[in-house]
Here is the input.
Amino acid sequence: MLKDNLMMLRTIHGFSQEEIAEKVGISRQAYAKWESGATIPDVQKCDLLAKVYGVTVDSLLRDEKVDGIGVIPPAPAGKSIWGTVTVSDRGQIVIPKGARDRYGITGGTRLIVCGDEVGIALLPAEAFEAGLKKVMEYARYDANGTP
Here is the structure.
């Protein structure tokens, strides 16, 4: 769990054990013991590590497993990885239960499908429409704030 996450995150970010140890105020040997699982950091050091890696303490301490892939690194703070989905022949997907629960997605929920060169995103239609309405209101004003 923790030891695997520390090793994955350090590798992803391109840090040496010495660089991370310096960032959290410990020796390289102490950090190496965390990565080997021989010892574990205290809560304050976990908080520092989470900040260095841009993740939450919670995600640093637990495993994230994705079907067909295995253990993956913790997602950046404020981001989530819900797993994989398979697109049916008709283009349908099943949104993982954790994501449905987190965002209150139930039968009949309207979602906006957005995307860029990398992938797609689903946004609640009401939130998207409210944001669009604000943009349209601001568009009616000139640089001086006059309609």
User: Anything to note?
Assistant: The mean pLDDT is 88. Residues 60 and 144 are 48 Å apart (CA to CA). The chain is about 45% helix and 10% strand. The longest strand covers residues 111-115.
